[in-house]
Design goal:
Layout lengths: L1 E10 L2 E11 L3 E6 L6 H8 L7 E6 L2 E2 L5 H6 L2 E4 L11 H5 L14 H15 L14 H14 L4 E5 L7 H16 L3 E5 L3 H7 L2 E6 L2 E7 L5 H9 L17 E10 L3 E9 L3 E6 L5 H9 L6 E6 L2 E2 L5 H7 L1 E4 L3 H5 L6 H5 L4 H4 L7 H14 L16 H13 L5 E5 L7 H16 L3 E5 L3 H7 L2 E6 L2 E7 L5 H9 L11
Parallel strand pairs: 3-8, 3-9, 6-7, 7-8, 13-18, 13-19, 16-17, 17-18
Antiparallel strand pairs: 1-2, 1-4, 4-5, 9-10, 11-12, 11-14, 14-15, 19-20
Length: 500
């Protein structure tokens, strides 16, 4: 259906693709994996018509193609479903599906009845229930992705590319998306699935292509490979420990949260984070974990309860006071809330400590670069220069910059929300090693994660939330996938190996 061979793409002196190759067959779901910066996104953007290749071959159904726009790619039957769909929020589901190509009646007016019937037929064909007349605003990411897929099917796209489609989905939503993907495969379409989640790749895909450092490494049937082999091909070495947790001496309480309540969001949240301890906060999407973290940091309001650091009560809604007291928050959405995308790596790394760098109210580039260089080096941020615009970095390197920005404040307590979402296995191991090292030096860490292996592998204690309440507190030795998931899906109770 689609074949790229030895594709090259450079941006000035930066070579994003040295030799990218990929083949998609009809009636097949193909995985594309690689570390951040391996060239996956660049390859996809060439297929989507966003970029033009500098060299190499690109064939669609056996014919040579060279797209100069996304419109040409769509017209050729290619659709890309991104991690965060971009629908028009004020328009209905139906209007979003048929945007720019609405059917008209004999009077030249938009035929809304036909549009609605076609939308209903599309959802029925995909086996999902979404009201075609409801506004897109407020829809879950999962529903938005299904709408994008429905749009692709209505255009009779023969090649569908899904770029990290499950990153923000719950287990039930992932199952529904996979059912839709399999039905499209069975219709003879070619699907490309890009993900860092190996369990999903093995559950869904037929074949996998591995890329490393902008070049093709190997293509293998899923049945003939293993996670260890894929990781070895991705990073060029054995990753012996994904969760390098070292034992740390647990000290006195640092962060104490008592009775924190916000009506309709979370209720009576009480927990402690001690020096040298990594506390995992687990639960399903929508359980209220990020909202609690934001309230503790002072970004979001709460109606009752108290937050204490080192025994001193922090004022509500004052993140500046939380920072000066010694709390740092690495947010879930690094692009919207963690970075100034248009600013340089140096500016982002020094953003929170600018007052410390100023002399007579002036901050020099030299002072900014010296402060940034420390953390860029320590966290091994891959960039040609500190002047590089942060928005051009890979996801893993953006996460490192956000982490470095907050570690520069020398916090007592680090709250880190989804520390490894959307980053590759090699960078995950680096982030985990850093968290373990920080805890070993006496920092208290509250780690929010939707990935159970990460919670079980890194946390000394696991707090489980469900519908805005903590339903269980489980010690590391007793924590299992079963009892954490039980607490995440059932009301507060005495779960096996847990104490509430």
């Amino acid at each position: 259906m689609l074949e790229l061979s030895r594709v090259v793409k450079s941006f000035g002196p930066v070579v994003a693709l040295r030799s990218g190759s990929l083949r998609l067959d009809s009636g097949s779901i193909h995985a594309l994996v690689g570390e951040n910066g391996a060239g996956k996104s660049t390859l996809v953007k060439i297929v989507a018509g966003l970029y033009r290749r500098d060299a190499g071959e690109f064939r669609l159904r056996g014919d040579d193609v060279d797209f100069t726009s996304t419109a040409q790619s769509k017209a050729a039957g290619i659709a890309v479903i991104y991690q965060e769909p971009t629908l028009f929020p004020d328009l209905t589901v139906t209007e979003n599906i048929f945007m720019g190509r609405q059917p008209v009646n004999r009077f030249g007016r938009i035929d809304r009845k036909t549009m609605r019937h076609e939308a209903e037929a599309l959802f029925q064909r995909l086996g999902v229930r979404i009201d075609p007349e409801r506004p897109a605003e407020g829809l879950s990411i999962a529903d938005q992705q299904v709408i994008e897929i429905a749009k692709a099917v209505s255009l009779d796209a023969r090649v569908l590319i899904m770029d990290e489609p499950t990153a923000a989905l719950s287990g039930v939503e992932v199952d529904r998306l996979f059912a839709v993907a399999r039905s499209l495969r069975d219709e003879g379409r070619a699907l490309l699935f890009i993900s860092h989640r190996f369990d999903e790749i093995f559950a869904l895909c037929d074949t996998v292509t591995v890329m490393r450092d902008g070049a093709y490494v190997a293509t293998t049937p899923i049945a003939e490979t293993t996670v260890d082999e894929m990781v070895r091909q991705m990073v060029g070495r054995d990753v012996t420990e994904l969760f390098p947790k070292t034992e740390a001496e647990i000290g006195e309480p640092l962060l104490e949260v008592e009775g924190l309540t916000r009506t309709g969001v979370f209720h009576d949240i009480t927990f402690t984070v001690r020096a040298g301890e990594i506390v995992g906060l687990a639960g399903l999407v929508g359980a209220g974990r990020s909202e609690v973290a934001r309230a503790v940091f002072g970004v979001d309001p709460y109606e009752s309860g108290a937050v204490r650091l080192g025994g001193r009560t922090l004022p509500r809604n004052r993140p500046d006071r939380a920072i000066s007291a010694g709390i740092a928050l690495v947010p879930e959405d690094r692009r919207k809330e963690g970075l100034v995308l248009e600013s340089s790596v140096a500016r982002n790394l020094s953003l929170v400590i600018r007052n410390q760098l100023a002399k007579a109210g002036i901050i020099t580039n030299g002072a900014e670069n010296r402060a940034a260089r420390v953390w860029a080096s320590r966290l091994e941020v891959k960039t040609n220069a500190l002047s590089t615009v942060a928005g051009t970095l890979s996801g893993g390197n953006q996460q490192k910059v956000v982490l470095g920005k907050w570690l520069a404040t020398e916090p007592t307590v680090l709250i880190i929300d989804e520390p490894t979402r959307g980053i590759d296995v090699g960078t995950k191991a680096e982030v985990h090693r850093l968290l373990s090292e920080l805890a070993g030096k006496g920092m208290g860490i509250l780690m929010i994660s939707s990935e159970l292996p990460e919670v079980l592998g890194m946390a000394d204690r696991v707090l489980v939330m469900r519908e805005g309440r903590i339903t269980a507190e489980i010690d590391r030795a007793d924590a299992t996938s079963e009892n954490v998931m039980f607490a995440a899906t059932h009301a507060a109770t005495q779960t096996p190996g847990a104490h509430s």
